[in-house]
Amino acid sequence: MVNSSGGVLYPARLPEFHRLPATGAAADLVAWFWIPEWDIEPGGTSRQDIVGYPALNLVVENSGVMLSGPTTRASHRDLRGRGWAVGALLRPAAVAALIDDPSALVDTVRVLGEPSLHARVTAAMSSGAGHRERAVEAFARWLVDRVGPLDESAHQANALVEVLGGADAALTPVEAATRLAVSVRTLQRMAHRYVGVSPAAMIRRRRLQDAAQIVREDPRADLAAIAAELGYADHAHLTRDFQAVLGIAPRVYRAELGD
C-alpha cells in the first residue's frame, strides 16, 4: 500500500481528520477513506495544502459528489464555516467503472450525478456517534456494487501501484516493468488507463512525498542524505523537484513547519 501518512504538507494545521481502512471487497478498490470535519469561526479560514497521490479521489460533500483527478503540483483549499467531506483514495481497479480516460482529469475535478451515493453518505454523517464508520460502510457498499467483479487487468493495475508506490518501490519504470513481467510500453498503457499519469510521474511524486515526510519528521535530517536515500541525483535535483511541485525549496518548507 502507498504511504498513508504522506500528502498533507502541514498536518498541524488540519481540522479534525480521520483515515479509515477499506475492508472486504472494498480493499481492492480503495487505499483508504479520509474524512475531515471542520468548524471554523465566522470570518476565519483554514488553508489546507496538499501534494496529492498519483491517484483519483471520489469525494462526497454536503454539496455533492466529485471525482478528483491526479495532480501535477501542490494544491490547497481554504476551509470556511462548518462542513465535512468523505473521500476515497481510489485504487486503479475502481477507476475504469467511473471514467474512461483518467488522464482527462489531471489537475481537474468533475462533478458526478450520483444521488444514491450522496444520500447514503450524507445520512450516515448526520447519524450521531459512529457516523464516520457508517459513512465509510455505506460508501464502500455503493462502490463495490458500482464496480462489480474485477478482471485480471484490474488486479494487475493494482499491482502496478504497489510496485511504484508501496514498500520497497521500484526506482525506475524499467524496474517496475521487470517486477510485473510486462514490457515498459504495457506498463505505460496501464498507468494511462487506470491512473492517468505516467509511471515516471508516479515515481517522482512518491519520492517527493517521502522527502517531505522525512523533512517533517526529522528537522535535523541532512538534505543531501535525503536526496541520496530516495534516488535523487543530488541535493540540487531534490530542490528542483520541491520547487517545481510545491513552489518552495526544502529549506523553506522546513522553516515553515516551525512557524
UniProtKB/TrEMBL annotation:
Name by which UniProt lists this protein: AraC family transcriptional regulator
Organism, scientific name: Microbacterium saperdae
Highest taxon of the lineage: Bacteria
Sample GO molecular function, one term: sequence-specific DNA binding
Family matches, as PROSITE patterns: HTH_ARAC_FAMILY_1, HTH_ARAC_FAMILY_2
Record domain HTH araC/xylS-type: where: 175-256
Matching InterPro entries: AraC_XylS_family_regulators, DUF6597, Homeodomain-like_sf, HTH_AraC, HTH_AraC-typ_CS
This protein's UniProt keywords: DNA-binding, Transcription, Transcription regulation
